[in-house]
Amino acid sequence: MMDPNKAAKRQEIKMLNRKLLEISGVRNVESFDSEEFLLETDLGFLMIKGTNLHIKNLNLEQGLVAIEGMVNELAYVDANSQGKTKGFFGKLFK
């Protein structure tokens, strides 16, 4: 069941040719490197995987992030997920 507080939030994700990703509703950049970003957003944690990723623009006051590079995967993850995401959080918090 969806959390009613999360339903009222708005998030936009805009991707151009898999090379530019613009995201609104970002609260924090938890971790990042050239292959993986983990963003805390109004709708949960968003994992972005790719190659040669880097931050083009960051404005946490407005909740906006722009990421450049080759984007291969976008996924919302949470601590209750099983399998692949559990391994991801285990790796993240080593």
Write the layout of secondary structure elements.
Elements: H1 4-7, E1 13-16, E2 20-23, E3 26-32, E4 36-41, E5 44-59, E6 64-77, H2 84-92
Antiparallel strand pairs: 1-2, 2-6, 3-4, 4-5, 5-6
What is the structural class? mainly beta
Approximately how much helix is present in the residues?
10-25%
Beginning-to-end CA distance, first to last residue: 31 Å
Q: Strand share of the residues?
A: over 45%
Strand order of the largest sheet: 1-2-6-5-4-3
Radius of gyration: 13 Å
**What series of H and E elements makes up the topology?**
HEEEEEEH
Tally of helical segments = 2
Low-confidence stretches: none
Largest sheet: 6 strands, antiparallel
Question: Would you report the number of β strands?
Answer: 6
Envelope shape: globular
Average pLDDT score: 85
Description:
The structure is a single chain. With 94 residues, the protein is mostly beta strands. 14% of the residues lie in helices and 54% in strands. It has helices at residues 4-7, 84-92; strands at residues 13-16, 20-23, 26-32, 36-41, 44-59, 64-77. The chain has a 6-stranded antiparallel beta sheet with strand order 1-2-6-5-4-3, with no helix packed on it. A hairpin with a 2-residue loop joins strand 4 (36-41) and strand 5 (44-59). It is globular, with a radius of gyration of 13 Å.
